[in-house]
Design brief:
The protein is of the alpha/beta class. It has one domain: Glutaconate Coenzyme A-transferase (3-Layer(aba) Sandwich), CATH 3.40.1080. The protein has six helices and eleven strands. Strands 1, 2, 3, 4, 8, 9, 10 and 11 form an eight-stranded mixed β-sheet that branches. Strands 5-7-6 form a three-stranded antiparallel β-sheet. The longest helix has 13 residues. The N terminus is likely disordered.
Length: 237
């Protein structure tokens, strides 16, 4: 697909779009389980062999797929996530001490990312009070309710998948595969998007845009999606 690169955001392939991700980079990656994974960008990052990465995602892949490929290749040194279950690679490397894991309640993780994008340094939440989550964190009372301080999360790069993009980076996502994507795009210094379809500027109406292009620096056309399903459930009969 040939589209005029008027805004210099369109890149020819995933490899060229992530070429400056460096060893030790902090990288956010959208996806919930294996839903909404930016498969092309993940493959390119795996091929790059960049190491000592801090990956910020809900679960860092599953069943040997998605971001789990980076774990298998020993490219990850730390994971900030909310869920390990189903990811044997992360479990094994965490238990052996090869990878540091910072677990967050899922809502707290989402809000920390959103705070990073909004320029809010920290916030108080009742989630985790009285549990191991609260250890070492400041606690205060608000309206008689105990709350703990959680800090914002930012990243060097965010890898995002969208259903449709235009050359300026305006995005439309597919249903719940949107998950963490908007917050991550706002919280990263450089947001790289792979879109399943790229349309001419103006084709996406204002009410159809889920994320404005101001938060996007690079766009690449994605292809050859696997779209794996972790647990396929069918109705009998």
């Amino acid at each position: 697909m040939a589209i005029e690169n008027s805004f210099q955001k369109l890149f020819p392939d995933a490899r060229s779009a992530i070429t400056d991700i460096h060893d030790g980079a902090r990288v956010m990656c959208c996806g919930f389980g294996l839903s909404g994974n930016p498969e092309n960008l993940i493959r390119a990052l795996a091929d790059s062999k960049k190491a000592a990465l801090t990956m910020i995602s809900n679960n860092c892949g599953a069943m040997g797929k998605g971001l789990a490929v980076l774990l298998q290749q020993r490219q990850v040194s730390e994971v900030i996530c909310s869920f390990i279950g189903g990811n044997k690679d992360l479990e094994e490397q965490y238990m052996s001490g090869a990878v540091k894991v910072e677990l967050n309640p899922q809502g707290t993780l989402a809000e920390r990312i959103c705070a990073g994008g909004a320029g809010i340094g920290a916030f108080f939440t009742p989630t985790g009070v009285g549990t191991v989550v609260a250890q070492g964190k400041e606690e205060r009372l608000f309206d008689g309710r105990r709350m703990i301080l959680e800090t914002a999360i930012k990243a060097d790069f965010a890898l995002i998948r969208a259903k449709v993009a235009d050359p300026f980076g305006n995005l439309r996502f597919y249903r719940t595969s949107q998950n963490f994507a908007p917050g991550m795009a706002m919280a990263a210094r450089v947001t790289v998007v792979e879109a399943e379809r790229i349309v001419p500027l103006g084709e996406l109406g204002p009410d159809d845009i889920h994320l404005p292009g101001i938060f996007v620096q690079r766009v690449v056309l994605g292809e050859s999606y696997e779209n794996p399903i972790e647990f396929r459930t069918t109705r009998p009969g």
